[in-house]
Description:
heterodimer, A: alpha/beta, Nucleotidyltransferase, domain 5, 5-stranded mixed sheet, 36 helices, B: alpha/beta, 4-stranded parallel sheet, 8 strands, 54% helix, globular, disordered C terminus
Amino acid sequence: MSYKIGIDVGSTTLKTVVLGNDGRIIEKSYQRHFSRVREMTLTHILSLEHILRGHPLKVAVTGSAGLGISKDSGLEFVQEVFATAGAVKKTVPETDVVVELGGEDAKIIFLGGTLEERMNGTCAGGTGAFIDQMATLLNVTADELDQLSLKAEKIYPIASRCGVFAKSDIQPLLNQGARKEDIAASIFQAVVEQTIAGLAQGRRIAGNVLFLGGPLSFSRGLQKQFVKTLGLPVRNAVFPALAPYFVALGSAYYAQSLSEDYALTFDELISRLREAPSQTGGLSCRKPLFENEEEYGAFKSRHAAMTADFGDIESYSGKAYLGVDAGSTTTKLVLLGCDGAILYRHYVSNGGNPLPVIKEQLENIYRLCAGRIEISSSAVTGYGEELMRAAFGIDLGIVETVAHYTAARHFDPLVDFIIDIGGQDIKCFQIRDGAVDSVILNEACSSGCGSFIETFAKGLGYSAEQFAQLALFAKAPVDLGTRCTVFMNSSVKQAQKDGATPADISAGLAVSVIKNALYKVIRARSAGELGEHIVVQGGTFLNDAVLRAFEQELEKNVTRLAIAELMGAYGAALYARENETGQSSLISPKELHAFTHKAVAATCGRCTNRCSLTVNTFADGGRFISGNKCERGAGAEKASSLPNMMRRQYEQLISYPLKGGERLRVGIPLVLNMYENLPFWSAFFVELGCEVILSGESSRELYMKGQHTIASDTVCYPAKLVHGHIEELAEKNVDVIFYPCMTYNFDEGISDNCYNCPVVAYYPESIAANALSNKAPRFLYPHLSLSDERFFASRIYSVLKDIIPGLTKSQVRAAAKAGYRQYASYRRDILAAGEEALEYAEKNGARVIMMACRPYHADPEVNHGLDKLLTSLGFVIVTDSSVALSGGKRRHNVLNQWTYHARMYNAARIAAGYDNMEMVQLVSFGCGLDAVTSDEIKDILRASGKLYTQLKIDEINNLGAVKIRLRSLKAAMEEREAITSAG
Amino acid sequence: MRDNDNVIIKPPFTEEMKKEYTILIPDMLSFHFDLVVGVMAQHGYRMEVLKTSHRNIVEEGLKSVHNDTCYPALLVIGQFIDALKSGNYDINKTALLITQTGGGCRASNYIYLLRKALEKNGFGHIPVLSLNFSGLEKEYSVPLSFKMVVKLIFAIIYADFIMGVYNQCLPYEQNPGESLRLVKEWNARLLSQMSGPSFVRAKKNYKAILRDFAAIKRVKSDKIRVGIVGEIYLKFSPLGNNGLEDYLVSEGAEVINSGLLDFIMYCVYNNIYDKKLYGKGGLGYAANCLAMRYLKARRREMIAAIKGHGEFAPPSDFSKVISAAGDYLDHGVKMGEGWLLTAEMLELIHSGCNNIVSAQPFGCLPNHIVAKGMIRKIKDRYPDSNIVAVDYDPGASRINQENRLRLMLANAKLNGERREETATQKETGTAEVAV
């Protein structure tokens, strides 16, 4: 007989189980391996010598990082899901479904009925890693996060597509002052939803559910959310004590099944592990950041020369100016003297709650000022701008772009390009003729790169500084890709498997962050395109490895100031100095002493957006409401009445009569192609004497209803919403659900062909295959085209003749006629309204935003009410669908064969002709076609000196980042107008 | 260079340039492309398939195209730019060739993205040629005579045929490399045949090829059979799918890959089916019907030859492939690989191969529907089907992909064992007492 050892080497942890002669567990362990996979495995096995020596040992390795060990050492490997299934069948055979969350992968195994094993797609990776990162963001340990979550009162909607997106929703919540308890629970809820959305794929998670893996066994908050969301009775939700060890156990059982020929002695096992050659063959590496100390020395001293003036706060007297940069993860303060010397500065990670940080700092500053120094003006910038102004009476609020440019210009008047990489965001500004010419901000996918390095360092047991130092002389920096931090995390796992050292990983991460910024965010053609005088700033650039990687990639030296991380605050302070108003409204020392703050979560009920609000109340009774998208959430009686074509399109769409008679009750989901074609179909069916029943308004709740039937987790949000609409229609009393496949759209004469995108064209097929239960009404999804009226009539007749009793060809012809008529009148009305909107803007001197978007972006749940945000900023909104189609078939540098794309290109050319108009393109995450359109639109706009702004939208509900971007756009427009009128 | 409308001026490819220029084509299916290049050479074109695979291809791709563009575009363009920068080609005597399907998928845009990328990298003067059957880019397409088309079709059919038997020999060969050597030998023989007037001696060739491959010494062993379906580039290109075929073979599997002809027939079929859905008839319709009949007949010829020989499994009759999709989705789904992808999964299952890898670019639009969107329905009807969808992307790590493939292989093994058990149980009649 022999002992059986199961070794599970996951992405973050090492688990082992030893089974004795009788098959019972005699030893088990769970520990983090800090990327030192081989070393830790060997050390652990050595520590078990007293148990293992003298017994024949059969060993099997499993886990994502285990594969490498197995290959190198020749030990048997078993795939982890397979191993888990084996262990479950053996020990908890009554299980129907297994949910296992690890550091990197999520898995679901369906055991009842047909066996099905699923692993998360690449995009949704990093469950445990995500929780770790979120804990770091909140400045708590994973345990504390769990404790916090149990005291939650409210769950915020948080994007469940992936960890990066979820973080984009969480970050602004923190900045708005939401309670940590609520955020903690919301984080767990996001994990639950991500697991269900990504893995259930139409199969219900029900029956006896066994929950496995580290996060699920250590976090009671996560357990709670899972049980609640799945609606499991307590007895059916099983959280075994062995949960973290199950995979290792399965691996040990696998070892048990091996023949005795596989048995090793203890010494043999040790030598296999010890002598396993570390294969780095699969790694793709790049050249080191620095060849030698000398090179680094030169680099160091070149950058050290870029310093600011400092003054002594202890001896200074007179006026001073305060600048605050309330960033997403950090808070920065600078106090300037009259002469521009820095009297005081502070940079601190705000741990998710910036208010106490500022309070403490202000107290400190007042104490140091000691009556000698008078703060005569103050300014704040960044995410937390509004909250800070409300809380502390800071005089001025400025847009980040302006703050950063003000600071950079102070040091290098010729600066023409500024790149700021902070913890969460990447911001770039191009300066032309002394004004911000274009602003480039990362979209959600690229966010969090900066803080990722920091979190990752902590995970490996290094401080951010130590980790950065390691990178400098790494011999073979590994290539970790650039798509997003979730992908990078997974690449790190690969690198670990291939034996990369922490130093190589650190250097690789630095390079990845830079490449992400250059090629994904900026889309730079060449280094020269950026500019001649490049200033870099933001906390992430304090990392020398990142700075070096940037210079290497550009093949050019750039300027990093010694106060790179404080530039926003410095700029704000300069701005405060330039815009001194006399009496400062900044909170007095006495008021500050009495300052208290309470945050309460609430939901705005004033419109269907149902914004999650955070109501901050201060000691003086002052209130600040955040999280609102329009003025009404903040208490204003009326929303802006500026023309808003996005809203108008939506309202017009649902304004048509739906009841034509009792002949058939036709359910139509208001989704995708229906946002263009509903006027057609409603008239068509009404004319036929049918009643059209629309699915309800899109909402988060509606989305959740259909979430479990989504087949592909990377499809766009508008498509994901279809599932909810279908569920809703199925509950209504309808005879059929009608949702045709439309390969082609209307030919509007401005493109070479008139395709819809594959998703708009064929999503009904995916619905038919995944989303309809046996009880659902009949689903009609014929392939139709509306471009040829006569052919359409005969084709639809053949589709409907067996469904509508007594249907005649002439009825169908008349109905088709009515459909075309109503569609034409819809288009006419929208175009006329667009025209009016433009006239209104002209007459009232209002600025206009031309939205390049697809018709279904008019859905308030898809655009998250950002149209209201725009009107509240004073913009009139027109869309590409509401402006005249002109110019016939224009030539482009892309294949112009999609109807919606042609409208966007057309609109871009129109926007280029108006002085008071800028274009904003809405892009749904996952829209591969917009990768094509966005470059072309940018090209068209650039050629006529216009700005290009892209907003990526998804489930992410929080518009914090969008707001900053749109305000920057507004600031840039104002600045340009000022220059034009001055010139 | 751009004109007054800010549109890139496309450098022409003239008859004279044919003599001096080397035309580069991206790698996808080496057996096929080698034959195609050979045929084109017979008509005066000097073409070269890029066989590069180093990391810089991805780097150039990332720099030159929008990073959310699909992975095949990024690789194809990256491979071109990498080659042009390598110094191995006289950039004043080089042209590029790319295929276009012209459907509603973004892949139709590759040629435009390529031109933009060339401009961006200072190669705006390099002519780009399109190879397509849909009349796009007329002035910039390779002019195809009837004879050339027939020869190219034959090149593809032969390559499909050879790939099919090669895949069935490779995992079992006793002397490694023997099958590949045979492929090369036959490539040369077929090309020399095709330069003469009598290139369509298909039946005779089939026989000879089968005889030669059957003579390869093979180890008799039970391998897991794995079918590969997917987005066409990733299905075939080792550069795109991280050497998927080699990986599967090294893990003890036999790979089944339907050929390129299926995709061509799919395109032709779509043009025919359009008449039903959209009433588009006319000359094109008649021509497509004719082409379909011709291609189907060629396929049947091939099947008959393999069946007649008896040692290898033939590909499916295309009529069967067409009808396989019927219960799952409409043949109107014609963007990207459309209904063909679903049909191929089903045909694999019908022919006894339950293990399937669907290789797709991360975020591929048609695949949301025709691949991932259909898996559940297939699984419901065929509980033993064992399908794994693998995403490919510049940032997707190999370990992530391999881990999913391993799960598929482990299940395949388990299913195989289970089937054997049931088989033995049935034979010995012990099914009832087994539990």
